[in-house]
Structures are given as C-alpha cells and as structure tokens.
Amino acid sequence: MVVRSTAGRDKGDLFIVISREGDYAYLANGELRKVDRPKKKKLKHLQPSRTVSEFIKNKLETAGKVTNSEVRKALSEYNES
Fold first, then answer.
1. Tens digits of per-residue pLDDT, 8-54?
2. Which residues touch 73 (CB under 8 Å, ≥6 apart)?
C-alpha cells in the first residue's frame, strides 16, 4: 500500500509499506529509505491511500523481497496518477 507520512521529519513523503507488525509499519521509498533498512513508523502517523501496487504486493508474497528500483517505480506511477 502507498502511504503518506503525517508526522516527523519525513512529513508529506510517500512510502510503500513493506511489512506490518502490531501498531507499526515498515516503510521504504527506494531513495533515502532503502528496502534493506526500512523505516519503522507508528500506524497513527500514516495516511493510507486507496492505492495498492499489485506488482509490489505479488512480489512480496511470492519472492518475499522487492528491490529499491521497483519501489521507486511504483511510487512514481502513483505520483503520475
């Protein structure tokens, strides 16, 4: 899912949720927050969008990992729409 940060230094930035654990989500944007070091952020500090990147979702379910370039591509496609 594509989310927007509503608090903190990264307020207003777009991220892809890589995983979720309790009240926290692990986020990556492929640039400053890489997939191998995702940002841990509370769910209450995120604004979810209605957009789910099917490619990223399928890749995480099958392979368990995505690349930074795939995350950047998914976010750029979201920005264009």
1. 999 999 999 999 999 999 999 999 999 999 999 999 999 999 888 88
2. none
Tokens of 41: 């952020």
Q: How far apart are CA 54 and CA 16, in angstroms?
A: 12
Q: Which two tokens stand for residue 29?
A: 């944007």
Which one, of 6, 8, 51, lies nearest residue 17 by Cα? Answer: 51
pTM of this prediction exceeds 0.85: yes
Q: Which CATH number fits domain 2-80: 2.30.30, 3.30.70, 3.30.1050, 2.40.280?
A: 2.30.30
